Amino acid sequence: MLELRAITAGYERHAPVVRDFSLTVGPGEAVGLLGPSGCGKSTLARVAALLHRPDSGTLLLDGEPVRHWRHRAARAQRTAFGVVFQQPRLAADPRLRLAHLIAEPLYATGRRSEVPNRVTELASAVGLTPDLLTRRPHEVSDGQLQRACLARALVLRPRWLICDEMTAMLDASTGAALVAVVEAYRSTTGAALLAVGHDRTLLNRWCGRTVHWETSSEVPEAS
């Protein structure tokens, strides 16, 4: 269970962009967070993924309060999350070839022996051919780079996926392909999903329930 209780967060001490927001994602659940651009959804997503410490409020994982964020968080907590951001070029080190980009979390957690098999497996799953794995970010399209970023998010087999406007910069077919990869992963692992976006139709189709940012109320799932 992922629980955010009365979260207030921002980047300037007296100017929070998130105020007193609560959200729960149950085991295996897919929850959409719907809201307009600039409302604070991405900040909340970063708090949920342990990438940004809130000013106040509580985050609980399986009932246990989180006390540290980013590199200070317990390894078991921070590696339980896989995150895909909206802009892959801001989320990828331009110096790395795509194979190394995907494998980054494995190197960081001392699991180098898993790199060859895991990179090959995930590249195939997200639709990257072997020749693309030798290229750097500036040598591939936004869609190809986002495929690599999704593979990186999955490489440690996370229990929670947080997709922050993952498809916003992609064409419809690539976006649909990446959503299908996420759902295939979830169906085999039971991972939960928090999908952040402003596309009501996509979130209603993708998620079991959708929470509207402005009212914190649920939007019924599309039939």
UniProtKB/TrEMBL annotation:
Superkingdom per UniProt: Bacteria
Check the record and name the PANTHER family matching this protein.
D,D-DIPEPTIDE TRANSPORT ATP-BINDING PROTEIN DDPF-RELATED (PTHR43776:SF7), TRANSPORT ATP-BINDING PROTEIN (PTHR43776)
Q: Note the PROSITE patterns from the entry.
A: ABC_TRANSPORTER_2
Gene3D superfamilies from the xrefs?
A: P-loop containing nucleotide triphosphate hydrolases
Descriptive protein name:
ATP-binding cassette domain-containing protein
InterPro entries named among the record's database cross-references: AAA+_ATPase, ABC_transp_ATP-bind, ABC_transporter-like_ATP-bd, P-loop_NTPase
Write the lineage as a comma-separated list: Bacteria, Bacillati, Actinomycetota, Actinomycetes, Kitasatosporales
Source organism (scientific name): Streptomyces tauricus
| Keywords of the record | ATP-binding, Nucleotide-binding, Transport
Which GO-annotated molecular functions does the record name? Answer: ATP binding
The record's Pfam families line, in alphabetical order, gives:
ABC_tran
Q: Per the similarity annotation, which family is this? A: Belongs to the ABC transporter superfamily.
